[in-house]
Amino acid sequence: MAPLRVLCIHGYRQNGSSFREKTGALRKLLKKQAELVYLSAPHCVQEAGGEEASEKDGPGSNVDSRGWWFSDVQARSFSALQQCEESLGLDESVKAVREAVQIQGPFDGILGFSQGAAFVAMLCFLQEQKLEPEFNFRFAIFVAGFRSACEEHKRFYNSPLEIPSLHVFGLEDRVIPDNMSRELLLSFQDSQVLTHPGGHFVPAASAHRQIYQDFLNRF
After folding, report:
1. Residues 151-172: pLDDT tens digits?
2. Is 173 a residue of the active site?
3. Going by fewer Cβ within 10 Å, which terminus of the chain is more open, N or C?
4. pTM
5. Residue-wise DSSP of 109-145
6. Is 43 annotated in the active site?
């Protein structure tokens, strides 16, 4: 049986290549079940600061730091905790995913980390409202996800979503505290949870294999 194809959406100040490197253990853990395909956000992040500034991707990591939207329109920066009336850049990011589906798809599921996970929740809403006909994800995986604090994004949380979902979060996450991930969890009707004792990363220890595999085996 062919492995499931999963579109992977990185966090703020990362890109598709750096996220691929960071999730090497996950790719190894799921290699028989899933092919992970990585996409880079369309927006360049110019300066340090924001949600994942503490996550250095190694030397030269600032060369291609990217984000899916900005909560501070003037500064073109992002923080998961920042309250804002409007954001910048979301439409372009939705277009980037639409094009990835058209060119690289089809995909069985979608996985997002941190800002990417918050973005994936929005994509799931657009799919269920039939606002993006190209989207046909059968499941979603959220790692360190959260609800956007931006006023114009409230519409994404108006109705419970039916897409099967796995929510992964660390109990010691200092960037996206687990209570923020639990709040996002409330938007999904058919959900499973994987908690780990660590911080802000994608867990892929052998202890986690069964939960990932049991979830993916549904599809």
Report:
1. 999 999 988 999 999 999 999 9
2. yes
3. N
4. 0.92
5. EEEEETHHHHHHHHHHHHHHTTS-TT---SEEEEES-
6. no
